[in-house]
Amino acid sequence: MAPPWNPPPLPQTSAQHDTHAWQHLGPPLSEGVRVRVLRAAHGDPRAAVELASVLSESQLTGLEPLPAEPATLAPALLRGHRREIRALPENTRRLLLLAAADQYPVTTHAFLRALTAARLDTRPLDAAEAAGLAHATAGGIVFRDPWTRIAAYETASAEDRREAHQLLARVLCDAGEAPRRSWHRGAAALGPSRRLAAELRVAADTVRAAGEPALACALAERAANLAPELRDRSRLFGQAAADAWHSGDGDRARRLVARTDDDALGGLLALRAGNATEAFDALLTATVRLAGDGALADRPDAAVHLLARATEAVIYTGDLRRCREAAAVADRFGLVPPGTLGGLAAAFEGRYDDARSALRATAGRCGPGGDPTLLIHSGIAALMLGDHTAAATATVRAAAAARARGETVTVSQAMEFRAYADFWTGRPRAAEAGALEALRQAYATGQDNGACHLQAALALFAAVAGEEEACRERAEAARAYALARGLGLPAALSLFALALLDLTAGRFAASAARLRALAGYGPGHGHRAIRHLATPLYVEAAVHTGDTRVAVAAHADYDHWARTVRSPDDLALSARCRALLAPGEDAVEHYRTALDLHAVGTREFERARTELLFGGALRRLRRRTEARDRLHSSLEAFEHFGSPHCAARARAELRALGEPAAPARGADDLAGRLTAQQLLVARMAADGATNREIAGRLLLSPRTIDHHLRGVFTRLGIRSRIELVRLLGQVGEDGG
Questions:
Q1: Distance CA 311, CA 572 (A)
Q2: Where are the domains of the chain?
Q3: How many other CB atoms sit within 10 Å of the CB of residue 730?
Q4: Confidence check: pLDDT of 26 > 70
Q5: What b/e string do you get for 528-543 counting C-beta neighbours within 10 Å, with b at 16 or more?
Q6: Distance in angstroms (rounded) separating the CA atoms of residues 552 and 333
């Protein structure tokens, strides 16, 4: 019985190799499928092109998992490799088979011991080295590429493969090698075996507890294939699917869960890669079934976890009705779900006192070493309360706990919400870098819904940086995907990003129109939390367009929430709204109140925007000295944030005061002259990367990268990449 040749993690390839592979894949593939096709093809562009050409429409869009068997992945490529292996002498093929069986899918490092135990001669390996297929090292055999290793295994007969696994099992004698010994024993089996299935199940439980979900998946899947009873097979496939998911192999998890009747796991996979409303329904159904079976006494945490996942579906969809359904199930069975569920329900219904109590209880549970999922909920609750420091702490600890448990898949989810905290607390470059890395992880692990959320967050960061093309590209891609999957959170966040872009560029009517549309969208299209977040923007845009009737009502609700949760930042923004809506001199004290509150808050970008608006108001009131101080302070902050539109407005206000046009802070400070995205692109270009290579690494289009480079050249007063290399080299030498 041959082991399942599922692809290992995508190898670290050069930027040029990776970009060329993406070029070959062509436009039909979604972004997440592109990444996973390369992973399934072991980074080989030829295999990737071959695989992409045979995918179904559902696979091309990511709705179904990619195929697993090598003969299905790249049959033509594999046929060529098999011919090369078959041309080798029999003794050489036997040694290569042994090495291949030792390396994948479970690496056991037993090849050299197996040679010694079987008294095998290594001289036949010279033929493989001469053919350029493999070579021997002190640590074992190194194959030319993964497809050569696969061919070396698959060209052997079933009997020879069993003998290889038996030999490897025999030499794995150390106490810590028992799980891997069990793996080879199972791979050598002739057919179903209750005894071997039980041995492999125990081995899977052992390594799972040790934080090795990838190995646990291989062992549980092998146990399932050997289990004689259908019920045991379904349960073991479910365990293997969960392990595959936690290890970051989303395609394998979805293939395995299809062989079970596990609604809960199916709902979790749909939550991260399918339709969010369907995911909620599956997760809530699984919760009711578990609670109704009377299993809560034995597994009290299981139902709470399922309810936590259903709450996440509510967060992504913004669906109040489903939020109420989940809360009703919790009450019915006496479950104590994360406070985000009760907090969301109460906030959506306008019961702000109840929302505050539930969210504060959840935000407070963010101690180190906790459950990653519950820590993420703590971070979300803290974000809703406006406590970005607590949100950062909870999400960092969630990512650390996930890594410690080997739950690769959860790390990028924690980073989705960490990005908000980094951004609002004055670390825009860290937020952008963290979101980009999380975006890559989300795509690689099959979490396209999470990737959509991150794309929307990156659109927001691009709006702040004045990167119009990047903002529109990311926002439009995220919104199109979100609307197809019922993801109200990223759909609303994308629209919010575009509205902020319009506002900071002075397109007030366009910004107000977008924000009014955002307020009207229902579940799966909009989100109450983002609508709340956007209220200060709407008030500002409405004041500039002279249509404040709706803005006054929106501010009243925002002020009610701010006073209830007593977040300094929310109270500051409420005071700013009051200042914008007040006539003349009446606005001054409201602005002062807002800045006093900002001083104890964490949203530095909003503090700078308040100073900009206050400075403009003071100029119009002819309070020139204080206006000048406020505007200079805001200009310095905007340059730190890399927000050129806002900085330009501050300079325009200063010019209106009679101040000379202020240059960007520090003419010798490169970061002061470029936005965060421009600086990143400039450094990659100076390192020799082409536009296509930079686009592949930043997950943007080459056209957008070309736009960034033109902006870099204009801002730096240069005309070529050679000058850019020279300038960046000088900055490096000067410590810039």
A1: 30
A2: 15-73, 263-416, 435-666, 673-733
A3: 12
A4: no
A5: bbbbbbbbbbbbbbbb
A6: 42
Residue keyed to tokens 């629209």? 495
Q: Do domains 435-666 and 673-733 have the same CATH topology?
A: no
| pLDDT single digits (tens) 432-486 | 889 999 999 999 999 999 999 999 999 999 998 888 999 999 999 999 999 999 9
The rounded distance, in Å, linking the Cα atoms of 166 and 427 is 56
Residues 250, 409 contacting (CB under 8 angstroms): yes
Over the range 23-45, which residues count as b (16 or more CB within 10 Å of their CB) and which as e? eebeeebbbbbbbbbbbbbbbbb
Looking at the predicted structure, is the pLDDT value of residue 663 above 60?
A: no
pTM confidence score: 0.84
> Which of 312, 286, 311 lies closest to 299, judged by CA?
286
Q: Which two tokens stand for residue 533?
A: 């977040």
Contact 341, 327 (CB under 8 A): yes
Which residues have C-beta within 8 Å of that of residue 137, sequence separation ≥ 6?
A: none
Q: Kindly give the residue spans of alpha helices, DSSP state H, lying in 155-212.
A: 158-171, 178-187, 194-209
585: DSSP letter: T
- Pinpoint the alpha helices (H) of 229-319: 230-247, 250-257, 263-273, 276-292, 300-317
CATH topology of domain 435-666: 1.25.40
Say whether domain 673-733 belongs to CATH 3.40.50.300: no
pLDDT in the model for residue 263: 82
Tell me which of 24-33, 157-166, 663-672 is least confident. 663-672
